[in-house]
Design a protein that fits this description.
The chain is about 50% helix and about 15% strand. With about 210 residues, the chain is of the alpha/beta class. The protein is globular. The two termini are about 25 Å apart. Bound molecules: 3'-deoxythymidine-5'-monophosphate. This is Thymidylate kinase.
């Protein structure tokens, strides 16, 4: 049995990642592909609860401390993610280490320092970057509720994302209709799945 694929959604706040990752899992499941949704931060764990308290501005933490908590929140999920991939489950992940680096680097922490704690995590096979200008994101419902949802900061975050893009990334215009975006992403995912069936690649390690 081939291992599952690791499909990642990244993007600025309110770009539609949660909607699209949920729809992708549904579509894959309906077509007989075993798939599971994973979301970072995972606010349900002990570390995730500390992250949630920070994001909702109930507690304060230094930029360095919150960065390391986000990374630890990924490391604590690695065993389960590896097991799932090895069992043939395709993981559709909503945010990951690229969000970690983009948000902390936008606070002026060094790139190298930001990447270091996430080196060696499982690497995504395919990344979809839902691109939206923060001015358009600000018009969407629910914007501005959490600590990072400020225009200038989001513009900085978007620049940092662009500086990390690699060959496995596709930039998707997040202003298109949700149906159109879904169709585009599903087609790209099916191509990646087919390629993987024809020529399976081992699970990769991030930034090594
Ligand atoms: P959601 O709105 O997607 O729940 O994210 N963030 C996220 C970081 O600063 N570092 C990270 O490593 C991750 C995964 C992005 C909540 C906020 O947390 C930010 C938005």
């Amino acid at each position: 049995m081939a291992r599952g694929l690791f499909i990642l959604f990244e993007g600025c706040d309110r770009s539609g990642k949660t909607t699209q990752s949920t729809r992708l899992v549904q579509a894959l499941t309906e077509s007989g592909v075993s798939a599971k949704l994973v979301k970072f931060p995972d606010r349900t764990t002990a570390i995730g609860k500390m992250i949630d308290a920070y994001l909702t501005q109930k507690t304060q933490l230094s930029d360095e401390a919150i960065h390391l908590l986000f990374s630890a929140n990924r490391w604590e999920a690695m065993h389960q993610m590896r097991t799932d991939l090895e069992n043939g489950i395709t993981l559709v992940v909503d945010r990951y280490a690229f969000s970690g680096v983009a948000f902390s680097a936008a606070k002026k922490l060094g790139f190298k320092w930001c990447k270091a704690p996430d080196v060696g995590l499982i690497a995504p096979d395919r990344v979809f970057f839902l691109d939206i200008h923060p001015d358009d994101a600000a018009k969407r419902d629910g914007y501005g509720d959490e600590i990072y949802e400020k225009r200038e900061f989001q513009i900085e975050v978007r620049v940092k994302f662009f500086s990390m893009m690699e060959a496995s990334w596709s930039i998707v215009d997040a202003l298109k209709s949700p149906d159109e975006i879904h169709r585009q992403i599903l087609a790209l995912t099916n191509t990646a799945l087919k390629r993987h069936t024809d020529a399976p690649a081992p699970i990769g390690k991030l930034w090594t």
